[in-house]
Structure formats: C-alpha cells, structure tokens
Amino acid sequence: MVLPILTYPNPILRNPTEPVKFPLSKEIQKLTKDMIDTVRKADGIGLAAPQVGKSVKVIIIDLEKNGIPLFPLYNAKITSKGFKKLEIEEGCLSIPGIFGMVKRPKKVTVGAQNMQGKVIRFSDEGWISRVAQHEIDHINGRLIIDLIKKYTKGEEIVKGWKKQGVV
Questions:
Q1: For residues 29 and 94, what is the distance between their CA atoms, to the nearest angstrom?
Q2: Bond into 23 cis (ω within 30)
Q3: 91-117 confidence digits (pLDDT tens)
C-alpha cells in the first residue's frame, strides 16, 4: 500500500526514532512492504520511516535504476566516515521543491540489520553511500535543509520558513 509522504515542517520528521526489535513484528514487516511501494511510486531512491509518519529505524534504499537491487535496513548507523568529501546536489521527497549542494563523506561504513535480524556491515563510496547517509540522517531527525550551504532551487521557500521561525 502506498503511504502518504510527510512534508516539512511536519514535526514527526524531527522526532527521535526507536530501534526495531527482532524477529520483525507483523507491523514492521507491513511497514517495510508499504515503504517499498511508496518509494517506488514516488520515483525516489530512498525513504525513511519518519517520512511516512513512523518513528522507527527503518530505511529503504532503492537504486534499481543504477543496477543495485532495492534493500531495507533496520537500525542503520554510520560506523566510520572517509576523509574525502563530495559535494553534490540533493533533494528530498519530504521537502519538495528544495534542492541544494550538500557536502558529505564520499565513503562511509554502515552497520545495520537485515530483515532476518542479521547484523551486516558494508562500505561504499558511490550512490549507496550517499543515499544511506541521507536516509540515516532522517532516522536521526536531520534534514537536508540543515546541511545545504548553497541552494540550487527553492531558497525563497526556506527563507520564508526562517521568517516564520519554522527552520
């Protein structure tokens, strides 16, 4: 089932998230399936549970267009970061119309659990690294508007939020 994607300034996007317990409950299994349906329908490359109103540590990485099969991660965290940084344009399904240059480590190592609860660890310096960092930020209440130094689109929207005290 496709879920509605929350948009900023919805406060749920900033809420702390709870770890997922294993074995996965039926609710978390359904949430995972629904998040997969949602990210595909939205033509996104990643989605985090807070974006669909759930304060749990579930993220989906969907880089199938890049030849990488979609996969969910539970309780994901960045365990190490490379020194080299890369600045590229980012957008977000929860902040439509806003795009800007975000500098992130090129390479990260991520620790997480898969659907079976097995602890996994992987390092990447490509698209998986970038999307994982963005989605892990979401489960930690951090958004691209916290990181953008130079807007490429939508700066006037953010300036309006700042005037209203939303940002």
A1: 22
A2: yes
A3: 999 999 999 999 999 999 999 999 999
* Contact predicate 3/96, CB 8 Å: no
Look up tokens 């294993």; give the residue.
22
Tens digits of residue pLDDT in 120-160: 999 999 999 999 999 999 999 999 999 998 999 998 888 88
Domains recognised in the chain with CATH numbers: 11-164 (3.90.45.10)
Cβ–Cβ under 8 Å, residues 50 and 13: yes
* Whether the model pTM is above 0.85: yes
Element (H, E) at 94: none
Q: Which of 89, 135, 155, 156 is catalytic?
A: 135
Instruction: For residues 52 and 130, give the distance between their C-alpha atoms in angstroms, rounded to a whole number.
Output: 21
- Is 27 an active-site residue? no
Token duo for residue 104: 């992130």
- State the amino acid at position 74 in one-letter form: Y
Q: How far apart are CA 87 and CA 90, in angstroms?
A: 9
